[in-house]
Design brief:
The complex is a heterodimer of chains A (about 100) and B (about 475). Chain A is mainly alpha-helical and about 100 residues long. Chain A contains 3 helices and no strands. Chain B is mostly helical and about 475 residues long. Chain B has one domain. Chain B contains 19 helices and 2 strands. In chain B, strands 1-2 form a two-stranded antiparallel ribbon. Classes of the chains: A mainly alpha (about 100), B mainly alpha (about 475). The interface of A and B includes residues 40, 57, 86, 92 and 98 of A.
């Protein structure tokens, strides 16, 4: 049964990776990054369920990870807002190397 | 063992950062006081490591290893902590002159983020637990993103956003690798894992994912693209910290993984791949540096090339000539590069304040106080290129010797070509200084403290060459198997 969760985590990972690489819109990229993170967490929690007896450490790791992700998302959104107010666009120009 | 040492080294800057942000503590004062306290900690740590080494290990709170986190230090950790200390304090002193001149409004947040980055780097240099490293990487990334975006210019914001996306993606790859390892063994401690890890598909994938995550953060080809804009557009002290230490700390974590946890995988083929990544970074970074019109961008691109050079340690190591010499060379290169790179960015910052820009063509005339700046630039460039007797020379010489002894002729040729390429782009930066200045150009004064700090770091990176013998004595103990993770 838990194998399905592992497979699900893999599918979500692939979708999030696709979104992160192909979307130009920064909000979509940020969301893809969040979904990628969630898939990693799902993977960890599924691993915890498979262990015998139940393993509490992955839960502690995921909780810490969620706190970290909340902070990173906040920073990402602030950056996004500042960029939007300044340029009026939600995409990044390609890196110029002058 | 003195339990207070790692606590002071990690929590000193962390506490100072919180105080600067929440209380009315002046950032400069907090940074310098933290520096003083950390100096005591570092000296004590150096004494303990040389007395009781090669490895010191701590278990905060007394929790045994499978559950508790562990800190560890050997002489390479101490040397990296010392380099971080020097760059963080010099950058702070440089900022005293730089912030009022360049970005007065952002001063308070600068110090908070500066101290947070420092704490994160110290924590990464001491961490033995894979998940602890993940948290350290995230803290360092967030603080660095904040530092890059401080100027609030559009280009800086874009660079910060690009760095943010790339570096967080790198962290996630790393965490995925950690999860795979945890699924196999139910452990997170590097030493405990290293004792039981063996060849296998899941472990191999974990090694690839974690290495890829760290390669992204070290900005090596082909995942280097974020570095030039991030390091080029950031405020000068920030560029120095990012290029000299942050990237080096990411490399350090990778070195730790491959010399401990993944050592069983360090065979010919993976090492060749890592070396090829290094070679591509040398070529790409060097070619781009040759094309740049701005001094700061040359220095930024040279970071990619120099860390490409450092990556050559892996193929040279498996060539099995003199493995110790290869590690020594790498350690020396990373340390000397740190001080030299900080000095180069500081010099570029002094010049851009004096001239109002950093376009190489128009940076002519190196008289007066600017003469000292150019002298520092030349010394630091000599160390990066690897001219004797600088620290950079010693590092590259050791690595080259190891390659010759291992008869890795291909990599010997690569190293010689890399040195020529480095020489060419550094010369391009310097050339303007000895052209006479047009008489009318008005040069704005540069605060003396900035010039002094620039010169200090440059002299340090050269002087490291004279410390080669004692350093080798200490590093001789470095490449030991990881400490036993006992309870």
């Amino acid at each position: 049964m838990t194998a399905y969760y592992l497979i699900l985590a893999g599918v979500i990972l692939a979708m999030a990776f696709h979104g992160l690489m192909t979307r130009a819109n920064l909000l979509r990229k940020l969301m893809a990054l969040n979904i990628f993170t969630s898939a990693v967490f799902l993977f960890l929690v599924a691993l915890a369920r498979m262990a015998e007896p139940l393993d509490p450490i992955p839960h502690a790791m995921v909780l810490t990870g969620i706190v970290v992700t909340v902070s990173t998302t906040a920073v990402g959104l602030v950056l996004l807002l500042k960029l939007y107010r300044r340029t009026g666009s939600l995409t990044l120009q390609s890196a110029d190397d002058d | 063992m003195a339990d207070w040492i790692p606590v002071v080294i990690i929590f000193g800057p962390l506490l100072a950062a919180v105080l600067v942000f929440t209380q009315t503590v002046r950032g400069v004062t907090a940074t310098l006081v933290t520096g003083g306290i950390l100096l005591i900690g570092l000296v004590a740590l150096g004494g303990e490591v040389s007395g009781q080494g090669p490895w010191l290990t701590w278990q905060p709170g007394g929790w045994p290893v499978p559950l508790g986190l562990r800190w560890q230090a050997d002489f390479f950790s101490v040397a990296m902590l010392a380099m971080t200390f020097l760059v963080a304090v010099s950058g702070g002193l440089f900022a005293i002159g730089f912030l009022p001149a360049a970005m007065p409004s952002a001063a308070r947040h600068f110090w908070t983020l500066w101290l947070f980055t420092w704490a994160a780097m110290n924590s990464l240099l001491l961490a033995a637990d894979l998940f602890n490293i993940y948290v350290g990487l995230e803290l360092m990334a967030l603080a660095a993103v904040g530092l890059i975006s401080l100027t609030r210019e559009t280009e800086a914001l874009q660079a910060a956003m690009r760095y943010f996306l790339v570096t967080l993606f790198g962290s996630m790859l790393y965490l995925l690798g950690v999860a795979l390892l945890y699924g196999q063994y139910g452990m997170l401690d590097q030493a405990a894992l290293a004792a039981v890890i063996e060849h296998g598909l899941a472990n191999g994938v974990a090694a690839v994912l974690m290495t890829l995550g760290l390669l992204v953060k070290t900005a090596l080809f082909p995942v280097h693209f974020w570095l030039p804009s991030a390091h080029g557009k950031a405020p000068v002290p920030v560029s120095a910290l990012l290029s000299a230490v942050v990237v080096a700390v990411c490399f350090f974590v990778m070195y730790r993984l491959w010399s401990g946890l993944f050592f069983v995988f360090l065979a010919e083929r993976p090492a060749m791949v890592l070396g090829a990544i290094g070679l591509a970074s040398i070529l790409w970074g060097g070619m781009q540096a040759l094309r740049q019109q701005r001094l700061k961008m040359i220095v930024a691109y040279s970071t990619i090339a120099q860390f490409g050079y450092v990556m050559l340690v892996f193929p040279v190591f498996v060539a099995d000539g003199a493995a110790f010499l290869a590690w020594h060379g790498t350690a020396m290169m990373v340390l000397a590069h740190g001080l030299a790179k900080a000095s180069l960015f500081f010099a570029a910052g002094c010049l851009s304040i004096a001239h109002g820009h950093d376009r190489i063509r128009e940076l002519t005339g190196g008289g007066g106080r600017l003469g000292w700046v150019w002298l520092a630039f030349a010394l630091a460039a000599a160390s990066i290129v690897g001219l004797p007797p600088s620290g950079g020379f010693v590092g590259k010489w050791w690595l080259l010797q190891a390659a010759v002894l291992g008869e890795a002729w291909f990599w010997v040729v690569v190293m010689v070509l890399a040195a020529l390429l480095t020489g060419s782009y550094m010369y391009r930066g310097l050339e303007a200084a000895w052209r006479p200045a047009p008489p009318v150009e008005a040069v704005r004064p540069v605060p003396a403290i900035m010039v002094a700090v620039t010169l200090f770091c440059a002299v340090g990176s050269v002087a490291m060459g004279f410390l080669a013998v004692p350093l080798e004595g200490f590093l001789g103990r470095t490449f030991q198997p990881l400490p036993i993770a006992g309870g």
